[in-house]
Write a structure and sequence with these properties.
With 171 residues, the chain is α+β, with helices and mostly antiparallel strands. The protein has 4 helices and 7 strands.
Amino acid sequence: MLSITKLFTFESAHRLAGHQSCGETHGHSFRLEVTVTGPLDGYGMIVDFSTLRGVVQPFVDKLDHTVINKVMLMDDVSDGWDAPTAERLLVWFVGKITGEMLKRSDWPKKATLHRLRLYETAKNFAEWVPDAHFDGPYVVDGYDTRCLIGIRRNTEDIAELERAQREASDD
């Protein structure tokens, strides 16, 4: 399998309300890695890097030099955004990026989002990968990811996902 990865950087601040060490507003130099996989086109590309940049950059720009908590409130994302963790930012990016991929006529039909990795510091990152055991789509924080959510923090989250899957299949 071939894949390509493009790196994006942005500087933002956030606060995690009620968190012991991150409850005060503080900043990070974020690095987002977006990996796409798919067959090669006639030029020998999965997708042109400039096309990938055109899909992702507007959402990176929306967060650059901002307080993330405020941006998310303006974006009508309310549930859980008093604590915009790296994991929640990844879910937001997945929803935005996949939505934009579906809208664009220059996006190759068989090119798919393979992985997102968001570095909050040089040593700490959260990662999203498609979950092969879930046949979504799944809506998280109001976003239809149109792909499979692979961010899981603890067994309660896993149980909640499995319960939602069972309820959805019963409908």
